[in-house]
Amino acid sequence: MADIGYFVMLAALGLSAYATVALFLGARRRVPELIQSGRNALFGTGLLIVVAFILLEYLLITQDFRFAYVWRQTTIGQPLFYTVTGIWGGQEGSLLFWALLLVVYMGAVYLVHRDNAAPFMPYVLAVHAFVLTFFLVVMNFEAKPFALLPVPQTDGRGLNPLLQHPAMIMHPPMLYAGFVGFTVPFAFAVAALLTGRTNATWVRLSRRWTLVAWMFLSIGIGLGGWWAYNELGWGGYWAWDPVENASLMPWLVGTAFLHSVMVQEQRGMFKVWNMVLIILTFVLSIFGTFLTRSGVLESIHAFATGKIGTYFLVYIAILLLGAFALLYQRLPLLKSEHQLDAKVSRETAFLLNNVLFLGIWFTVFWGTIYPIISELATGRRIVVGEPYFNQVAGPLLLAMLLLMGIAPLLPWRRVSMQQLRRNLTLPVAAALLTALALAISGVREWVTLVSLPVVAFIAVGHVQDIYRAWRTQRLRTGEPPHTALFSLVAKNRRRYGGYIIHLGIVLMSIGIVGSRVYDRSKDITLAPGETAQIESYRIQFMGLDSSRDLIKERIAAPIHVWKNDRFLGVMTPAIDWHFKVPGGQRETEVAVESTLIEDFYVVLTGVNEDGTVTYKIFINPLVTWVWIGGFILLLGVWIAMWPDPREERILERLQARERPALGMRI
Amino acid sequence: MTMEVFIVLILIAFLVAWTARPLMRRRFVSDASTPNPQLEELEALLFQREAVLHALRDLQFDRSMGKLSEEDFRQLDARYRAQAAAILKRLDELEQAVGGPSTDEDQALDEWIDQAIAALRQQRAAQAKTCTRCGAPLSLNARFCAQCGAPLGLSHVAERTSSGD
Predict the structure, then answer these.
(1) What's the CATH class of domain A1-164?
(2) Which of B6, B8, B27, B87 would you mutate first to test chain A, the one with the most A CBs within 10 A?
(3) Structural domain spans, chain A
(4) For residue range A420-475, what is the model confidence (pLDDT) as tens digits?
(5) Taking CA atoms, what residue in A is nearest to B30?
(6) Cβ separation of A197 and B23 shorter than 8 Å?
């Protein structure tokens, strides 16, 4: 079995390296045979990666403890579900999973675009081959998925119990599908530069792929937060942890890219910006994988012992140098087709949007790598805590929100102050009223006093804009109200999809402000049968309840909960002791009662010798709105992603006319 | 060597052969056909035409929503119509040169733009209209007043605009 794995990985590396060279050379010299050969080699690589993945999965399921990866990821008694999904729980397997996802994207891109993007295709595939080659180099020489243990074992160590949670199982695939997905727009960007076809075509072709990647990354980040909230038991969902930041960084720059490309499509401007943004987004995806997988975050020493980090840094350097050298060389092709018509317009808002997103990204980036740099420079690791991020990124995020409220009210090209005032009246009034209402009701926290009015401003501005467009549509076409709304959205899915995403962000902002500014917590120790009052909640400890299975011991301390004397039910916070983990591992099982107003969040922190137990109880207002906002954001992405028949028609028309003359179908 | 290893080695050999096959098929010659600059321009023009049409529709919509002042609208509208005319002229020339099959839809769209430009000239000569009920300025192809909702005379241009969406 080890031989098979070895041969498969080595052959995959050989084929993908060959495919990279053949596709680049073939496209450059226009040799169709070479391009086809490269394509075949690349598909061969894909097939071998699928085989390798199935093989590793087979070894995991059969629990073949001769293999190091199997030994680390599973143990006898571990539920099958977590054994199967444990394949992406460790370094080697997740690299293989990364490669597998890239193969899936590659196949889909090939099927969708072989006809309508024929001139780009050889280069697009070449970039995919180049990325695959890197991962295969790492898996062949450093992080070998099929490495054997020096001595075969009879039982494994098993997947970290903390990761054995449904959200945590789906979190890496979503995150990786996001990271990997940014390869597609990056490949189209490189192809546009190499072919010199730098108009908006590459943007149109890759737009939906960017949205797919962005959606997966958003889901991944959301699941990560949800897991942290429900599993880690510290009462929050986001801590500016470096691993979280690793996924947030490509999201931030990718979001800037998604906004910025609209300007290229509509106005033929910002071409250089868009190239820079997509290069950065892709490199940050690789960087994110590096941060989470190299061990550099724990300490420089962990990084130095695992050499995988060096591979990543070298590859990132090659990518950055190569991409920016190519961009520099092609700068003359990226001249703007228009100038900014006025100082205030939607274009300038988009420009500011790019600047702000990059500013937030840099803040996060600096805070994430600062501990590493400080350790390199002084030998001491200086960790940048939450206050840094809240104080530096916070105001930038607030400025971003403000811009999000104003920008959609601006027309393209130019704005007249009189019209702008007319559009701003209602949102500004809403913001002022909100601020006044908050002040009167005794709110003194400046974060709330500033952010909630901004949120009201955005919400009212967007709803007003949708309402006015809807009214105009009705008057212009005479359609009945619901048809008018439908055709309005259908006519401009991207705009209204974007608006819905913005409204999702509004709800999330409300949840974030509520839960971060107004969360309370209290430690309570109770004897069996004893009750305690926490604000409007009353709890009664029902007595301990222990159980044991093959891998863990559980001590549960169930409580009865009443709110305002109404019985809510039984909550069962618990502590699990995973005795199979070397040295044992303690894990808390959080119990949460959620409502739209607040979450009642109970963590069992201690079981004492006198028979009493200690709980840490959090009351987290409005958390549910963070998750609801996330779902609305997803709905918006779906609307924005839905194919636009008009765009399809142009591409089809072109394809019918130009295929014989413009590059070959491969 | 076990059976499984044997199967995998055969698979790998097959993939290598599959990779080599295109290279065997013919002489190793560079594709003589050079990129056709006319077709590349055609592509660019098709997208530009779409962008200009989009811009024109946006302008009308933005004005009727009250985002754009009348004066700005007139200026920008005239500029984009001029651009549209230039693009269409160049497209006509190119399509004749390339001889590609022009679809019915293409022609319909072109006709619509020609009509729209003609209508614009006519209307401009007859000065801008205002609503008879409330006196608000009206877009050239409005069927209803955007301010008070009063119905106005129909124009075929307006019908094409909405069905074109």
Answers:
(1) mainly alpha
(2) B8
(3) 1-164, 169-335+347-397, 520-621
(4) 788 888 999 999 999 999 989 888 888 888 889 999 999 999 999 889 888 888 88
(5) A31
(6) no
